[in-house]
Structures are given as C-alpha cells and as structure tokens.
C-alpha cells in the first residue's frame, strides 16, 4: 500500500532534498507526487533570465530577472546552483531555501546531476537522492515510446544518460524506478526518515527531558 502522510511533528529545521538522475528516469513525476502527498514539503522557485510565457506568474512559476541581475546573483553567491540552457540562465536562489528550512519546512529540488553537485558544495547539509532506472533498456524504451526522436537523437540521449548515471556514486540515497508506485514509496520513506531524525527535533526532546 502506498504511503499517504497526514502529519508528523514539525522539525525545528527543515531539510533540502535534492533529487537528480538521468533523463528518462521519471524524476519530475516522482517529485510532483511527493509534493502532493507529503505535508510540510515545498518546491523551490527558480530564477531565470528568459521572459515570461503566457500564463506564467512571477514568484509562482519563476523569478524573472535581467541578465545583469542574474550575473550579480552568481557573483554574490546568492544561488545554490545555476546553469545556462539554450541561451537563458536558470538558478536556485539560496535565500528562500534557507529561510524555508529555518521555519521547519522542507524543500524538494528536481535538478540535473551538475546542479546537484553545485548544491552539495554550496549547502553540504542537503540530502542527495539519485533516481535510477532498472537498466539501460528501460531508458531506451521510454525514449522510443515518445515517438518524436530519430535513432541518432535517441543514441545521443542514451550516451548522455550513461554519463549522468555516473552521479549515482556521489549521493546519499538511491531510488530505483522499476515500478512507479514502488518508487514513490521508496522516495517518501527517505523523506520521512530524514525529517524524523532526532537532531531535527531538539525542542521535542526537551519537552520530555526537561
């Protein structure tokens, strides 16, 4: 039976969970489901230099900043991680993440392997989780089911996935996405265990020990 969490003692300090993995392993689906099921867990709003698209709202979808402001944020260490994608830059602001954790709430990041490495350097207390496929054949099957890429593109994406999977040796936890519900349960078990660690609940301990 899948876990559906209702409530638990709020930690004194929340956690930053960083979920990474190769493309095609289902990161986004798992992160969305964890956010839906678990209380006290939020998603960080990224900063970007690209203009808003129709329907996007400042502060909800992205923090839209100028290239000059983004460069200043990088220079002054205001970003936990950042990258340039198709000429636009994207990054995770440090301030809102740290403030959220200080309130006893937690953040879940869904980022690539390079971004996860940057976060680990910037905030060593972050909790790294890597999503694995059952095997490479599963990634290839998912890519081919899209029916949008040529064989050459699929081959390139598979090569990129193999490179990304090297990040599995650098993290604290591994989740294998063979069955989606099982992967949901694995991820949520990690989140709950980390949030129930004794060192996150000093005030609860003091309540009973004086």
CATH topology: Rossmann fold
Distance between the termini: 39 Å
> Which sequence of strands runs across the widest sheet?
2-7-1-8-9
Helical amount among residues, as a percent range? 40-55%
Shape, please?
globular
CATH superfamily: P-loop containing nucleotide triphosphate hydrolases
Q: Beta-strand percentage?
A: 15-25%
Give the name of the CATH architecture.
3-Layer(aba) Sandwich
Low-confidence stretches: none
Number-wise, the strands total: 9
What's the helix-strand series? EHEEEHEEHEHEHHEHH
Oligomer: single chain
Number of domains: 1
CATH class: Alpha Beta
Write down the Rg. Answer: 18 Å
Q: How does this model look, in words?
A:
- The chain is of the alpha/beta class and about 210 residues long.
- It contains 8 helices and 9 strands.
- A 5-stranded parallel beta sheet has the order 2-7-1-8-9, with helices on both faces.
- Strand 5 (about 80-85) and strand 6 form a beta hairpin.
- Helix 5 packs antiparallel against helix 6 (about 150-165).
- The mean pLDDT is about 90.
Topology:
Layout: E1 16-21, H1 27-37, E2 41-43, E3 47-48, E4 63-64, H2 67-75, E5 79-85, E6 88-93, H3 94-102, E7 106-110, H4 113-122, E8 127-132, H5 136-145, H6 151-164, E9 173-176, H7 180-195, H8 202-209
Parallel strand pairs: 1-7, 1-8, 2-7, 3-4, 8-9
Antiparallel strand pairs: 3-6, 5-6
Key terms for this structure?
single chain; 210 residues; Rossmann fold; 9 strands
Put the structure in a nutshell.
The chain has 210 residues and is α/β, with parallel strands linked by helices.
